[in-house]
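Tutorial handout. Part one gives the primary structure; part two gives the three-dimensional structure as tokens.
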Amino acid sequence: MESVYMACLIGGILYAIVSVIFGDFLSQALDGVFDFLAVDFLQPMTIVGGITIFGGAGFLMERYTSLAGPLIVLAAVLIAIAGAVAVYFLYVRPMEDSESSIAYSVTSLAGALGDVIVPIPAKGYGEVMVKVGAGNTNQIAASFDGAEIADGSRVVVVEVREGVLYVSELNLNL
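Part two.
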């Protein structure tokens, strides 16, 4: 039985090494393959993590305890399940939740606040800086109201047409 534990342990370690080296390629190649698994918990990372933990726990208990074979298998399975649950909740789930992109659509900027960095004439274009995610983006802007907007003014994006942000000065002194 020791060889089964060792095979599980070595197989899991090899999977980890291969996924570190070829992870992006494998992710794209296998995208959607595991979608048939209706249970969100059954991710490749949790399954392989559980098999690796089973192998490691079984091998260590086989070598360093005086437990009988069936008890070692049972304990290794319980430890593997606990480890797979931990891998899922401490690694897989947070990574799924934190998946984000720095990409944005200019049309999604409607309603955003910005600062004028190049004055916007009454009829013409200037430039505003709008916070997007963790960074900023500079965009061409025109006055929505047809009024001149000075450099440094705080503005709100009213609408986006043809890649141009139409902004109004934000007047906080109501």
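Part three, for discussion. The beta strands are 113-118, 126-132, 135-143, 154-161, 164-169. Helices lie at 2-29, 44-64, 69-97.
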